[in-house]
Design a protein that fits this description.
17 strands, 23% helix, Double-stranded beta-helix, globular, alpha+beta, binds fe (ii) ion
Length: 296
C-alpha cells in the first residue's frame, strides 16, 4: 500500500497513511517520511500500536536518540520518557498537587524540546497509549510560516542574532515547581542561532520558545521581549495545528522549526499515558566563536 500524505492546514501538519511504523521500515520509507517532515513540520499517524521497544526501534531510524533528563523519575527509562498523570508503580492517577503533575504543567508553555542543550533536538515522537476523551490537545505552531510572514526588513534584523536558552530560566516560570538540582546541573545555559535554515529545503525559520531567555549582546529585557513577540506571532491561529488525540495516534514534529505546548485536561478524572522519544540534532547552531551558523 502506498504512503499517503494529506495536508492538515495551509501552513503546518500532514496526516500520513498507508504505513505501519511498529514493524521494521525500509530506507525508502524513512526517506519519504524525513522529507515529509521537512515539508510539513508535523506528521500525524493513526493506529500505531507501539510498545516501548518498537517505538525506540522506529525512532532510531531517524538518528541517535537523546537521553531524557529525568531518567530517574521518568518510569519509561531512557531513551523513552513517560509523560503521564499515572503512577506506574501503583497504576493510580497521581493525587492533585503531586510534583509530577506540577512538572508536567511546564509543558503548557510554548516551547521546543531540548533547546536548552548544546545540540538541540531534531524531532520528537509522541505515542498516545492512553488518552483522555476530552482536552489534552497538543498544539503546534510553525516558526517557518511566521518567519516568512515578516517583512524582509524584520527578517534581516533577526539574521545573525544569537539567543541564550536556559532550562533553569524556563522552569523558574512554572509556579510551585523546583526541578531537581541534579537536572539543572546537567544543562547549563547554551547559545543558539535565532534564525535557522532547513538543510533539506533551504527554508528559514526563527527559533524561540520558553527556554529562550535573551539575546546575546542586547539588554536582557529588550531581547526577552523580542523572543516573546516572536512566540506571539508564531502562535496566531493561522500558524497553529491543534492535535486532538485518539488512542494509538503517533505524532512526529520538527523541533528545529516548530513550537508546541500541551493543553489542560481533567487530570483527576482521566488517565493520560504518552511515551516520547527524541531524535538528537546533527550539531550546534552556533560556531565555536559564538556566531550563528547559516545552516543548522
Ligand atoms: Fe515538549
Amino acid at each position: 500500500m502506498p504512503i499517503t500524505i494529506q495536508k492538515l492546514t495551509d501552513t503546518i501538519g500532514a496526516e500520513i497513511g498507508g504505513v505501519d511504523l511498529t514493524r521494521p521500515v525500509d530506507d525508502e520509507t524513512v526517506n519519504v517520511l524525513k522529507s515529509a517532515l521537512d515539508d510539513y513540520s508535523v506528521l500525524v499517524f493513526r493506529d500505531q500500536a507501539f510498545d516501548n521497544d518498537s517505538q525506540i526501534a522506529f525512532s532510531q531510524r531517524f538518528g541517535a536518540l537523546e537521553n531524557m533528563l529525568y531518567k530517574k523519575e521518568g518510569d519509561g527509562g531512557t531513551p523513552i520518557s513517560n509523560i503521564t498523570n499515572v503512577d506506574m508503580d501503583t497504576n493510580e492517577i497521581f493525587p492533585p498537587g503531586h510534583h509530577r503533575l506540577t512538572g508536567n504543567s511546564g509543558n503548557e508553555m510554548w516551547h521546543t524540546d531540548s533547546s536548552f542543550k548544546p545540540v538541540p533536538a531534531y524531532c520528537s515522537m509522541l505515542s498516545g497509549r492512553e488518552v483522555p476523551p476530552e482536552g489534552a490537545d497538543t498544539q503546534f505552531a510553525t516558526c517557518r510560516a511566521a518567519y516568512e510572514s515578516l517583512p524582509e526588513s524584520e527578517q534581516r534584523q533577526l539574521d545573525g542574532l544569537v539567543a541564550e536558552h536556559n532550562y533553569a530560566y524556563s522552569r523558574s516560570k512554572v509556579k510551585g515547581y523546583s526541578p531537581p538540582a541534579e537536572a539543572i546541573a546537567q544543562v547549563p545555559p547554551v547559545q543558539h542561532a535565532v534564525v535557522r535554515t532547513n538543510p533539506g529545503n533551504g527554508r528559514k525559520n526563527y527559533y524561540t520558545g520558553a527556554h529562550a531567555s535573551h539575546i546575546i549582546g542586547w539588554p536582557l529585557e529588550k531581547g526577552r521581549h523580542l523572543l516573546e513577540e516572536l512566540v506571539v506571532r508564531a502562535t496566531r491561529p493561522e500558524f497553529v495545528y491543534a492535535h486532538q488525540w485518539q488512542p494509538l495516534d503517533f505524532v512526529i514534529w520538527d523541533n528545529r522549526c516548530v513550537l508546541h505546548r500541551a493543553t489542560a485536561f481533567d487530570s483527576a478524572k482521566y488517565r493520560r499515558v504518552m511515551r516520547r522519544t527524541t531524535v538528537a540534532g546533527i550539531g550546534p547552531t552556533v560556531s565555536e566563536t559564538g556566531e550563528a551558523l547559516a545552516v543548522a
